[in-house]
């Protein structure tokens, strides 16, 4: 018996944070931080870094110190990955925020 033919992969659904209106950018930033934490727990450091940078971008653009604080709380989880491209820059950027 032969295996069925390979099919194209299905596109990933948009994360729930993408469905929020612009007026909910603070909420989007919070969701992104939680998503980054989940990626870290799955050892997907590169994706976590992408998402946490987006969250920090939103927080600093909005001038939302509570959102920046939430990102800061996750920073220690990135420290073991200082050798990964982008992590030192993220930590330095966060420290400057």
Largest sheet: none
pLDDT < 50 runs, ≥5 residues: 2-14
How much of the sequence is in beta strands? under 5%
Broad structural category: mainly alpha
Distance between the termini: 60 Å
Helical segment count: 4
Q: What does this molecule look like?
A:
The protein is mostly helical and 97 residues long. It has four helices and no strands. Helix 3 runs antiparallel to helix 4. It starts with 24 loop residues before the first helix and ends with a helix. The N terminus is likely disordered.
How would you summarize the topology of this molecule?
Elements (H helix, E strand, L loop, with lengths): L24 H17 L3 H18 L2 H14 L8 H10 L1
Helix pairs in contact: 1-2, 1-3, 2-3, 3-4
List keywords for this structure.
97 residues; globular; mainly alpha; 4 helices
Question: How would you concisely characterize the structure shown here?
Answer:
61% of the residues lie in helices and 0% in strands.
């Amino acid at each position: 018996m032969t295996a069925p033919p390979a099919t194209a992969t299905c596109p990933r659904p948009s994360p729930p944070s993408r469905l929020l209106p612009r007026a909910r950018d603070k909420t989007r930033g919070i969701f992104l931080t939680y998503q980054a934490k989940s990626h870290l727990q799955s050892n997907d450091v590169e994706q976590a870094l992408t998402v946490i940078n987006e969250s920090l971008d939103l927080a600093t653009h909005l001038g939302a110190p509570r959102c920046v604080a939430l990102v800061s709380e996750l920073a220690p989880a990135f420290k073991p990955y200082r050798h990964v491209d982008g992590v030192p820059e993220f930590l330095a950027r966060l420290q400057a925020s």
